[in-house]
Amino acid sequence: MEHIISLFVRSIFADNMIFAFFLGMCSFLAVSKNVKTALGLGVAVTFVLLVTLPVDYLLQVDILGPDCLVKGVDLSYLSFILFIAVIAGITQIVEMAVEKFSPSLYSALGIFLPLIAVNCAIMGASLFMQQRVTMDHASTQAITNVWDSIAYAVGSGIGWTLAIVSLAAVREKMAYSNVPKPLRGLGITFITVGLMALAFQCFTSLNI
Amino acid sequence: MSTLFSKENKEAFTKPLNLDNPIAVQVLGICSSLAVTSQLKPALVMGISVAIITAFSNLVISLIRNTIPNRVRIIVQLVVVAALVTIVSMFLKAYLYDVSVQLSVYVGLIITNCILMGRLEAFAMNHTPWASFLDGLGNGFGYAIILAIVGAIREILGAGSILGFQILPQGLYDAGYMNNGMMVMPAMALILLGCVIWVHRSINKEEKK
After folding, report:
1. Between 20 and 30 A from B118 (CA), which of A139, A189, B50, B177?
2. Which residues of B touch A124 (CB under 8 A)?
3. Residue B68 gets which letter from DSSP?
4. What CA–CA distances, in Å, run from B196 to A119, B48, B70, B82, B146?
5. Whole-prediction pTM
């Protein structure tokens, strides 16, 4: 239990998807113009992470790892193709399910859902999970069972949401400030994110 | 031969290098560009890998563009890209092991690099194979240029070297100069990239005038 809580908190703050690993930057920059849509995308990303990561974990442990299917065969070189297929497939299913059962949520998230398949945060979380599976079990970062992978998925998703919502809030206020012309838009956003990342750097020494 | 290097084809290659740069103008593929630029060498390797993958995935998708059903095209594109990335990743592990360890998961993340999907959707789906190949190559190198600039600045300021060779003389350190440890931290990559875009935009604005 302790391990899961530590994994969860660390993935929100110290191993924040955006500020520590720069994952999911494209949609992070494109959709952070106002808080409401940013929150919607954050929730959608968290949800897709929550569904895909345990599936990818089970695939990695039961099928792709060394000696899983056939003795002496290590299939982990197939992981890129398999993970991305799982992510793309699940995003499609989630999209259809949301459309069927909750049309209001679908119209709120609509355009973002298909884009999540190519969000680096999802693929990145799967690849980091793959690295962490092979880690020493005593390490606080190790993922040793399905519950760990779920905690990591939810933590990463919340961390990503936190980052995009706070950037959106800053950008809403920044609309009123006088930024040098060539720096407007993308340039100043990068510098803002850089300063936010510096602030988040203080969490790296967090020990729990 | 003349049609192979017609004006449009040339433009497909040269435009993304500067005026239509994927990072500075189209804002694609930011994720991986930041994490791998703390030194010049991984930045270069990453840039070249991405250029090769964009070129060939554009080529493949453009060849089969008329046979892909519209509804499942994203999955088809992803699978083609993932196969190419797997090949590149295995090649790096075999011939450039130390760099591939440094790049770690970011090689795999080329799959979800927005440059690839962006160019596949916007260009390869409705252009001929040769033009798509050039467009992919151009976008890949446009990406590599920015990566190399940021990587070089960070390595000089952060470690005083380029490609691992010490550039700043020892005398400078004796006189009290110190490497800037901030430059190696991830946050500075963002700020530097912001500055690169700033310079790029102000230069291009002057050219237009």
Report:
1. A189
2. 31, 105, 109, 112
3. S
4. 24, 20, 38, 30, 8
5. 0.83
